TrEMBL record:
Pfam families: CH_2
InterPro entries on file: CH_2, CH_dom_sf, Spermatogenesis_Ciliary_MAP
Protein name (Swiss-Prot/TrEMBL): Oidioi.mRNA.OKI2018_I69.PAR.g10705.t1.cds
Residue stretches making up the CH-like domain: 77-177
Lineage: superkingdom: Eukaryota
Gene3D superfamilies xrefs: Calponin-like domain
Amino acid sequence: MVEGQAPVTTLLATTNGSDRVTPRLSRRSLAIPLRDTQVSASTQTEPKHANCRQVIAKTEKKFGETPPSSKLPREIWKWLQNMSLRKNIKNVIRDFSNGYAFAEILGHYYPEVVSIEQYRDGDSFPSKQANWHQLELSFKKIFGKKQSRSEMLKQMTEMTIHEKPGAPQQLIFYLYEILTAKKVNWMPGEYPENYTDDKYQALLPFHARHTASTAIKTNLKITEEKTCPNINSEREKTERILDRHRNWKSGEKKSQPIRFEKRPTLCELAERVVPPPSQDRQKANTK
């Protein structure tokens, strides 16, 4: 073999019971050093091909590429794990929306009031409504009529059904502080209090933020239309979302005029001079 040349694949003769000879590739002949363009994932880790060029894919993760996480503090997770819930919690916003996990929490502390057999672990909207109707009755028995009718509790339960961001976390904190008489350590503003994704949109780059249609789609759930099928109320919610979206866009254009190629109008470029007071006005002022 000539130096510097790759070894040629050798053929071994085998017989298959007849006089006919069939070629067979030897294992040794397959160990050919790969060129720079012939790199595969299966041969990169073998020591005999250590002199070959390795291709390592490095895809940088863009900031704000992933959706907002539905995380909870560590003490809340320990509290939930100690109760050994049947519900497997993976996504807090989705898994707490049907009320089954809340029923298990209340049944752990008040088994004489809440029976888990009356609840269904389903994702359909009728099953959610049935579960939360039973939870409202349990709230009245446990916390009393005055506390169960508070506007804050009603708003949290309603937004939890519609899977709004921040609503189930705040309801979990509310129950944790009442049932355990402990204070949750969490930073103010960590969870959205207006139950929108404005905080997540602020982390995204300008090109990845909502348009007007996607803002309505993400902030107005179809379950809200089922609970209150009123055209006027839906129109008010849509207009509120659009107004907030316009304010966002106007603020972006003011902060980044070069990106949006915002040019001043002729009215803004024109020099404004205060007209001198006329003689009639001076006479009127003197009188």
